[in-house]
Amino acid sequence: MPITIVRLGSPRKTKEGLRLGTVRRPPRGVPKSEFAKRDFYDVWFPNLSPSPALMKQGQAAHDDRSWSVFERKFRSEMNAPDAGKILDLLAALSHQTDFSLGCYCEDERRCHRSVLRQLLAERGASFARA
Q1: How many whole angstroms separate alpha carbon 57 and alpha carbon 51?
Q2: In the chain, what are the domain boundaries?
Q3: Contact 49, 22 (CB under 8 A)
Q4: By Cβ atoms counted within 10 A, which residue in 25, 37, 42, 62 is the most buried?
Q5: At what angle do helices 81-93 and 112-122 cross, to 10 degrees?
Q6: pLDDT of 3-56, one tens digit each?
Q7: What is the pTM of this model?
Q8: What is the spatial distance between Cα 119 and Cα 100, in angstroms, rounded to a whole number?
Q9: Dmax over Cα atoms in the chain, in whole Å?
């Protein structure tokens, strides 16, 4: 009953479970009633997205050095007590139920969801095989 990491808007996979949108903003031009139907997310969960200023920095990170700075700062944000508790909860839930986390970014390697994957793995989360 693992976590699946997805790109929001991509077709759902079998046993993906509830899809959590870990994004700062909902999809543009899509009515709220259509988010799940169009494979964006079932629940909007911006608590696991970078702060607005950090999100801009991450989107501008086009080399390894600037990405490392983003990653370090995002890890710091996610180590705040409330975010840490959410990550602990999700890691524990990954052993009980299927769910997925996602963002809009095309390349997971340059997306905060890659950092979320690492943070959850450090907490013992179970992940679906790619």
Answers
A1: 10
A2: 3-122
A3: yes
A4: 42
A5: 70
A6: 999 999 999 998 899 999 999 999 999 999 999 999 999 999 999 999 999 999
A7: 0.93
A8: 15
A9: 40
